[in-house]
Structure formats: structure tokens, C-alpha cells
Amino acid sequence: MEKKKLAKLVNTGYENIHLIMGYDGNPSKGVCDSGFRMANDIIDRCARLI
């Protein structure tokens, strides 16, 4: 179950950081902050799996 949650988090983070901010050029601070929170959460969850 943890792997499914991690996969969903990675997909959402990719969408926010790469697609919305990168391709769409959304300069919103809220989107940026959300993306960094997701990235930190992904790192923390991966560290627990090791």
C-alpha cells in the first residue's frame, strides 16, 4: 500500500513541478510551495523504504 501512495505522490509532484510550472509557466508561489512540499515528502518516504 505504501508503494501506491508513493507512486501517486510522485505523479502529482511531477505534474505540479514539471508540467504546471515548467511547461505552463505558472509562477504561483502556492504551486511552487506545494511542489517543494511534495518533493520533500517523496524524499522522506523513499528514505523510510530503504
| Derived structural class | mainly alpha
Largest sheet: none
How many DSSP E strands? Answer: 0
Terminus-to-terminus distance: 16 Å
Number of domains: 1
Oligomer: single chain
SS element count, helices: 2
* Secondary-structure element series: HH
Mean pLDDT: 84
| Overall 3D shape | elongated
The unreliable regions are: none
Specify the helix fraction band.
over 70%
Q: Describe it for me?
A:
This protein is an all-alpha fold and 50 residues long. The protein has one domain. The chain is built from 2 helices and no strands. The longest helix has 22 residues, at 2-23. The relative contact order is 0.18. The mean pLDDT is 84.
Helix-strand layout with pairing:
Elements: H1 2-23, H2 29-49
Helix pairs in contact: 1-2
Name its key features.
elongated; 86% helix; mainly alpha; 50 residues
Summarize the structure.
With 50 residues, the protein is mostly helical. It is 86% helix and 0% strand.
